[in-house]
Description:
It contains six helices and eight strands; from the N terminus they run βββαββαααβαβαβ. By secondary structure, the chain is α/β, with parallel strands linked by helices. The protein has one domain (about 35-169): Cytidine Deaminase, domain 2. The strands form two sheets. It has a six-stranded mixed β-sheet. It starts with a strand and ends with a strand.
Amino acid sequence: MKEFELKYGMNPNQKPAKIFMHDGSDLPIEILNGRPGYINFLDALNSWQLVSDLKEATGMVAAASFKHVSPSGAAIGRPLSDRLKKACFVDDIEGLDDSPLACAYARARGVDRMSSYGDFIALSDTCDATTARIIHREVSDGVIAPDYTEEALEILKTKKKGNYNVIKI
């Protein structure tokens, strides 16, 4: 894809803008679902840089929650204690202990749940179904990850009446 027309400019009352590569090459992303706006892309690309750096620095999977181009939370995929599962509202999620990425996202979202409301999520690794189930029940504008399992993508595509922004980078 050489260019992508955004849902709107910086604010909903503005004309749609486009993203493209200055040299005319293909974009380094693929829109799998939804129609992101300008701020969505700023959140997606900045949060992607953060989780990429976290993974490189620690060697562990990472997740971040961004809102208005600022991190609301970021974390690596360490196991959650029973107490932390309750605090992060994920104590009912099946398979959580088997998904470091889901643990990373639960931790990142749990840093400041109020600020994360309507966030854009970045995941350092392939989004699995467990992570997608947590994302599905939260108020969020979109997610960026290097890939998605088939089941995770099916779950995410049902969010926001089928308009949830899913970006592959």
